[in-house]
Amino acid sequence: MAARTAGALTAALVNATDSPLAAACEFVLPIAAGAERSVAATKTFVATLSALLRLIASWAEDDALRAALARLPDRLAAAAEQDWSEALQTFAANISLVTIGRGPTLAIAREAALKLKEVCNLHAEAFSGAEFLHGPVALVSLRYPILLFMPTDAAGAGLQRLAEDLRHKGAAVFCAEPGEPAPGRLPAVAVDHPETDAVCLVQSFYAMLVRLAQRLGTDLDRPRHLEKITRTR
Question: Beta 146-149 vs 173-176: how paired, if at all?
Fold first, then answer.
């Protein structure tokens, strides 16, 4: 409200269009995700990303992105079926891990780290692949596994080099990416568009997260110390 009063253009991406946030903004962009019952709000995250991409596609008159968004629902269904069980034992056996992304997948890496904290009680930190070698690389060891969300745009080449370097340093590295089965590769749906490919990666991650929480014995529906609504003043 203060921003709007000061003359700023305000817009809200919301699920509840009758919320105080929606009322405070000039423009309301509904994500139409339906009732969000999960404390972790995974459905809201995916729907918000999709809504943002739809806004960008319209604003930029990007027909390729529009077409990719039309294909996204079926691709998300396929993404949820990807088997990331190879990572379960390693993640469950450690209390800390790193998530890495770059370009379209940096936000995915940050979301994954947050959910690993919330749902699995694991200490997870997210980094950009561009910054990881500047200090955080000192964390690398077999006891500190690394999950890379591989982008399918120009940023992918640099992250591939980073993954290889981290393996040489002795890290337990898992790369979420399409391709033939290989040690440390977590399968992803086939490449389509870099932005929607990133959304599909988080859907595959969520499916793995459920199984990891079950293995660790944490309660997905009642994360420790969390409430469905967090009020700030």
Answer: parallel
The predicted structure's pLDDT at residue 225: 45
Q: What is the pTM of this model?
A: 0.90
Per-residue pLDDT band for 156 (boundaries 50, 70, 90) equals very high
Assigned architecture for domain 2-78: 3-Layer(aba) Sandwich (3.40)
Q: List, by residue range, all CATH 3.40.50.10490 domains of the chain.
A: 2-78, 84-216
Q: Which residues of 30-54 are buried (b: 16+ CB within 10 A; e: fewer)?
A: ebebeebebbbbbbbbbbbbbbbbb
Q: Please give the class, per CATH, of domain 84-216.
A: alpha beta
- 136 burial level (CB within 10 Å; 0-12, 13-18, 19+): middle
Helix (H) or strand (E) holding 157: helix 156-168
